Amino acid sequence: MVAQGKWVKLDQKGTGPGARSSHAITMAGQKAYAFGGEFKPRVPVDSNLYVFDLNELTWSVVSVTGDIPPPRVGVTMASIGDTIYVFGGRDSTHKELNELYSFNTCTSKWTLVSSGDTGPPHRSYHSITSDDRHVYVFGGCGNNGRLNDLWAYDTVDKKWLSFPLPGENCKGRGGPGLAVAQGKIWVVYGFSGVELDDVHFFDPANEKWVQVETRGEKPTARSVFSTVGIGKSIFIYGGEVDPSDLGHLGAGKFSSEFFVLDTDALEWKRLEDGANSSDHPGPRGWCAYAAGQLDDKEGLLVYGGNSDSNDRLGDIYFFTP
User: Fold this and answer.
1) Does the annotation mark 42 as catalytic?
2) Using CA of residue 138, residue 142, residue 144, residue 146, what is the dihedral sign?
């Protein structure tokens, strides 16, 4: 049986963020919130919080109060219930950041939750995911190179938890996939100076890291792809498969492929996702992406990113497996 899925390109009305990459998006209910990013390499665009209504297909700028995060690139967002969490990134002076902010979507208020010596060290181009209680942060580019540490912010106890470091096999990396599946936190691929193709998980129940051998139609090494965990499956789309000689200033070569990892069988499958249809997003990386629901079906929202031509993209797609 061939694994399949369907892309839909969403129309956009209203005042939206436009084209950008290295930004973040997350969904709370039928609304997607976008923050951060760049249009020119390494230059943060703004500190607006934009909201996209998936029913009306309309963007607007949220009128906010409180501790508004300054502009940044390489930032991440996750949501639990009505609350959005924003962590890290890099500011306009190229300084790595480590503040955790929360945003209450009911009151439209930003709150600085932690900074300084509390919580994970400064970083950008890390990965974030959440379950119904914790926001997990892994890896990224730190002050002294690429990181391989895993942290969780407990939104009930309002405190950071640090986990044991993985072994030497799990190199420090930027742009990895991070997903929760079957109670474990999975780290998929990423960039350590070279594109990686390894898979690891951390089991919080016994505080152990495990590197797994996967089989099947295995994706080539890549980073800065879009990731979503649904049930026992981890879906990955796109990403950089060949880095640019110009580093962050260049585009590199991007994939348009979609794969799914069954975390039980540890087997990859390539998805038939209508690669030639007009609704397909094509090759890209450095996108903003989020798990969410469209028409009551779970899937992956992908917004913007960078293209093979090094032009920033501003379109939005939703994938349903």
Assistant:
1) no
2) positive
Query: E strands of 182-311, at which residues?
Result: 184-191, 195-203, 208-212, 215-216, 226-230, 233-237, 240-242, 253-254, 258-262, 267-270, 288-294, 297-306
Residue 146 among the catalytic residues:
yes
Residue 47 has pLDDT above 70, yes or no: yes
Q: Residue 246 has what pLDDT? A: 60
CA distance 294 to 320: 8
pLDDT at residue 308 in the model: 87
Tokens of 20: 């950008």
With vertex at residue 138, the alpha carbon angle to CA 45 and CA 224, rounded to the nearest 5 degrees, is 50
Mean pLDDT over the full length of the chain: 95
pLDDT at 276: 85
- Choose the catalytic residue: 20, 72, 123, 146: 146
Number of H helices, E strands in the chain: 0, 30
- 211: Cβ–Cβ under 8 A, 6 or more apart, which residues? 167, 169, 170, 198, 199, 200
Q: Are strands 109-114 and 96-104 parallel, antiparallel or unpaired?
A: antiparallel
Q: Is the pLDDT of residue 317 over 80?
A: yes
Q: Which of 253, 290, 258 has the alpha carbon at shortest distance from 272? A: 258
Catalytically annotated residue among 90, 123, 173, 312: 90
pTM of the predicted structure, to 2 decimals: 0.96
Contacts of 149 (CB under 8 A, 6+ apart): 120, 121, 138, 139, 162, 163, 165
